[in-house]
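BUG: 3D viewer hangs when loading the predicted structure for this chain

Environment: internal workstation, default settings.
Expected: structure renders.
Actual: progress bar stalls at 90%.

Input used:
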Amino acid sequence: MTATTNSASRPTGLSRFGDLLSRSGLLIALLLLFVGLALVAPNFLSSRNLLNVLRAVAFNGIIACGMTFIIISGDIDVSVGSAVAWASSLLGVLAIQQGWPLWLAVIVVLIQGALIHSAAGFIRVKWAVPAFVVTLALFMSLRGAARLITNAFPITPFPDSFGFWGGGYVLEVIPVPVVIMLLTFVIFHFISTRTVYGRSVYSVGGNEEAARLSGIRVWRTRIATFALTGFLAAFSGIILSSRIMSGSSNIAQGLEFEVIAAVIIGGTSLMGGVGTIAGTFLGVLFIGLLGNGMVLMGINPFAQEVIRGLIILAAVLVSVIRKR
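Structure tokens produced before the viewer hung:
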């Protein structure tokens, strides 16, 4: 009887394979996508193209770290694209039109990004307003404010030295935004796995009432998560301004949906409590490679939107099935 029980409790080879496939599915899909595009997409494997892909996804990847925490906590933020445009426009107004020292303008832009999203988080917890509604208001108002202060025209030029952060290279090979993105992922991986705050985010998303009863200050965790996301959106707006060497209200349109898609594809559950920074990193790469490959193959832009939508739907369904 004991032998039978022990053998039944031990995972079979098939179950171990299924568990491995469940945890490594996105990595396998990413590798298959890479190999497939290498075979069919013209010039996909050129070093220039691959570096351009990494540079392009860097701006989304920076914000995706904060978005991962937002969704793990059970919320969502649809305002980050507008927050990027607002940060870029404000930086242009302060540093170019008003003549502020660039370093001071950068600090002010970062602080206001965190404060605006902190206010959104406060409204979320104080009056129990759904995060989607609060950030939808920001989505519209921040983009409108950016166009208001710039008259919808780019503000230029920044000092030439500023271009290093968005267009420069480390060791003359690796784009600076890619290095910044990798450092951001490392920092947020550490926060999510090695800090009390990181564990609190998972607890709040998994069961808010249980988290509250265990002594976690839910309101503080939610506001801090919104503040981090706002800070990263402002930071990404600064780096993107360096890339284009202007403050613009027309950048980052649709960025919020690309970021959310990357986080969901990376395995973060929209129901909260589940997700990893490593998974988000793979999701960012998957979205970037997919978009680049479809462009290289000349796929109709409208068809590209359909494909992205179906992939997001599939990722959500897989997440729901795994949680059940």
